[in-house]
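Entry 14. Structure prediction run on the chain below.
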Amino acid sequence: MTIQVEPLTSHPMFSACHALQRAIGAGDALSAPTLVSIQRSGGLVLGAWDDTDPTPTLCGCLVDLVSTGRRPGRLTVFRGVLRERRNRGINLRMRRAERSLLRADGVEVVRWAIDPLRSVEAHVAMNKLGAIAVGYERDLYGSTDAPQDRGLATDRLVVEWRIDSPRVCAIIDRRRLPPHFDLGLDRMAVVTRTGAAGDVRRFLGARHVRTGDVLLAEIPSDLERVREENHELAREWRLGTRELFEAVLADGYLITGFVHEGGRSFHLFERTDREAAFDRIGGQRSGKDGTGRTSRKWQG
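Output returned:
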């Protein structure tokens, strides 16, 4: 598979992006005319094309709006990859292309929202791109028909990506691991309690430990599998972690990393501020997938 990422600029391209959104079940697909307006107003509409077949297939899209006011930069309002082409690094390629284009335009910050219970989204954002999570929004999008949200509140983490910061440059340009890879697990306090529930894990409770500088909060390693096993378990995870995440973030912590150990996944909270987090770099060099691992599951 050969993937080419480029800005979408023509009506057929915008129509293909709209069709892709509908194909993957986006709750409110951006229409072709809306995408034209975004592009003409200075926003960015990127597409990832699979050139393997004689006729290239649009397999991924990313859409940024111009953000002004107190938080200038770009706001990602859509990103998605066709289901059959996921876990092949396409999302990461689009983000890297986005970064190159925005750096050339003098843009410094990109923000987007991720589901706090989806491990792969957190892994890509924190470990591969060097972003951090700075806030938590309850039910950000309200009720939606999107398959990934059906039956769950649309809670989201607010992610910030300073694309030319020392942290991001070290991870993307110099293939350094995020700084938390230099810490031992013994320096991290786990603030969630979970237990086995068949082949998945169940949320049992949480406590906010204010004495540690680095905290770990477990989330499902595979939210879809939890939902398939028992949808009520997924609701327990959503409601059980919501107040914990809000409390820890309000207490001066940021989410600066993601840890996957022994088949279990954890957000890493660090007591720090944004400037310090983006100024710090890790010392270890990364493996093939940018995190010291080579598993396809974590390619993004």
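The helical segments are 11-23, 32-40, 90-104, 119-128, 166-172, 223-229, 231-250, 274-279.
Filed with the rest of this week's runs.
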